[in-house]
Automatic annotation (TrEMBL):
Domain of life: Bacteria
Organism (species): Paeniglutamicibacter cryotolerans
Taxonomic path: Bacteria, Bacillati, Actinomycetota, Actinomycetes, Micrococcales
Pfam families assigned: NUDIX (PF00293), WHD_NrtR (PF21906)
Region span, Disordered: 220-249
Domain NrtR DNA-binding winged helix: 177-234
Gene Ontology MF terms: 8-oxo-7,8-dihydrodeoxyguanosine triphosphate pyrophosphatase activity
UniProt keyword terms in alphabetical order: Hydrolase
Protein name as catalogued: 8-oxo-dGTP diphosphatase
Length: 249
């Protein structure tokens, strides 16, 4: 009898109108000890209730009746990871009827790139845990053991976000988003090696980058090294393309 009641409740929930949720994929550069270069990482949250109890998932939550989409994404991200994004871009809507084992859920997914210093600011000094919470932590975007076993369809969502990042972002724009206002050519190469997950020939990349639009040199140099300081460059293109920013109230 109990089993019949539980089954009936699940069946009833499946017939209800879809619930709306907001999730966020956020990428940052971090040191990767395996490769000796920067890697692409993202924060995940361990679920503390069913469905998918104990599995890792993207930061997110239900959309409140009075919440705007972008404000809900920013609030979920802030509450779970402590990160306050400088901007958020709407990535895609995921609404497959089978993505949730109970009531159907349609998720509006946002994504963002955060600077390495911003990401490190929220991290516990000794671990990759955020906000000293063992249920929120950073993971490599290419960590197959983790990414293939995420809750819901979040593995697919991350794959789609990576595809967009690798195919749509321009040289200067991605450097600007992940590195800041000023950067060296070597740092830009590090960004692309992290995003593409492969090594690039330094000489060829330098030639291509110098010929690219929207990258211009400055009169400043990076200080603090043992060798001749490298020149700093800046991104001179639009800061809203292709990662379109939205105002967060």
């Amino acid at each position: 009898m109990v089993g019949s009641v539980q089954f009936g409740n699940v069946a009833e929930r499946r017939e209800q109108p879809p619930a709306l949720a907001v999730s966020t994929v956020i990428f940052a550069l971090r040191d990767d000890d395996r490769t000796g270069r920067k890697g692409l990482w993202l924060p995940l949250v361990r679920r503390t209730r069913e469905p998918f109890l104990g599995q890792w998932a993207l930061p997110g939550g239900p959309l409140g009746a009075r919440d705007s989409l972008v404000d809900a994404a920013a609030a979920n991200l802030r509450d779970t990871t402590g990160l306050i994004p400088r901007y958020l871009e709407q990535l895609y809507a995921f609404g497959d009827p089978a993505r949730s084992p109970t009531r159907r859920v349609v998720s509006i997914v946002y994504w963002a790139l955060v600077r390495e210093n911003d990401a490190q600011h929220t991290e516990s000094a000794a671990t990759s845990v955020l906000l000293d919470d063992p249920n929120v932590a950073w993971f490599r975007a290419d960590d197959v053991e983790v990414m293939e076993h995420l809750a819901f369809d979040h593995s697919r969502i991350i794959d789609y976000a990576l595809w967009r990042l690798r195919n749509k972002v321009e040289y200067g724009s991605i450097a600007h988003r992940l590195l800041g206002e000023r950067f060296t050519l070597a740092q830009v190469r590090g960004v692309y090696e992290a995003v593409l997950n492969k090594s690039l020939d330094p000489a060829n990349f330098r030639r291509q980058l110098r010929a690219a639009a929207d990258i211009e040199e400055t009169d400043e140099f990076l200080s603090g090294g043992k060798h001749r300081p490298p020149r700093l460059y800046r991104y001179s293109g639009s800061t809203s393309h292709p990662l379109e920013s939205e105002t967060i109230s």
